[in-house]
Each structure stands twice: as C-alpha cells, then as structure tokens.
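Page 42, continued from yesterday. The earlier attempt failed because a stray header line got pasted into the input along with the sequence. Redoing it now with the clean sequence only.
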Amino acid sequence: MKGAVLIGAFLRRTCWRAAFGLAGGLEVTGPVPDGPCVIVANHSSHADTVALLAALPARRRPVVAAAADYWFAGRFRALVCRTAVAGFPVRRSRGGFDDLASAAAPLARGGCVIVFPEGTRSRDGEVGAFRTGAARLADLAGVPLVPVGLTGTRDLLGVHGRLRRTRVRVGFGAPTHDLEAARRAVQELTARAQRRPGTRT
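This time it went through. Structure tokens are written below.
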C-alpha cells in the first residue's frame, strides 16, 4: 500500500511538472520541506493545488484537503480529485476539523498535508484570514506549519477557467507553529515574488 501511494505521488508530480513546463514554467524557491508538515498557502486558483504537487518531493506523499461540497459533490468529480491531486473531503461547515483530523495518519507516516486555510479562492488576489483547522491539525500531529506563497496561478487559470500561458512561482517559507506568523509569511512570500521581474501583478 505504501509503495502504491509513493508511486501515485511520483506520477502526479511528474505529470504536473510536465504540464507547467508546457504552460510557461514553474519556479520553486525557499527550503522545500523534507519532513512531515502541514502546508498552508494562499489560494486564488484551482492551479494552486497542482503547483504545490509539482513543487513538493514525491517522497513526502502529499495529500490535499479539498472542499467536500465542491470536489466531492458527485462521483466523477470526486474520482478526478482523488486521482489527480490525492484529495480528501473536508467540510467547510460543521465537522470540518474531524475531516481534517483524518490526515493525522499520513503525517505520522512522514507525509505532508496541503491546506488552503482561507477556505475558498480569493477573488482579488489578497490573502484573507486563515481558519484555525490547519494549525489544530499540526498541533494534533506534532508537526510544523510550512507557509507557501503562490504567484502566477491566478493568471494561468482564472476563476472562470480560462487558461493563459504564464510562469508560476512557488515560494516556501520557514516552518512555524504559529498560524498568524504563517499567514504573514505567506503574504510576504507572495509580495516578494510579485516584485520580481517577469511576474504579473
């Protein structure tokens, strides 16, 4: 079972990196996590998830907290979510943390869990308030939060699903156990990438 999960993670990483190569490129900066952690990132596009899967090492076997009311509303969409991004359902209302807590098992096995703590995609590109579930999961599993700033994904795939060729940047920050510190780091990483030449704002 463990071998199959690793193979799946390797195939997803390989496929998504190839896709970004065709779509304008993927640039990864900062200390990529080499241990179990909860990834917290800004969220403005469906492309955010696959950018993280392309950037993270397959040996960390990343899984993704996905909105149950959207990605698991039907069998086909749920199959796509599980297969393409290793997603698992998390309710955005009551019971959401119970769903998140199920990810403590992959963390105990040395994996990492991707959570978008804003709870939904930003419509203006600003980083919104973070919900507490990611920090509670990290505390439960005894692992750090790793902040990540994503830029370019909103230009690549906007809210209305129109693809445009552009370069995507994934910036990893230093691990922390404080949710607000993680949010500030995500803001700083995003702003820093936007100031770099060749990045659209």
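Notes: The chain is about 45% helix and 15% strand.
Reminder to self: strip header lines before submitting.
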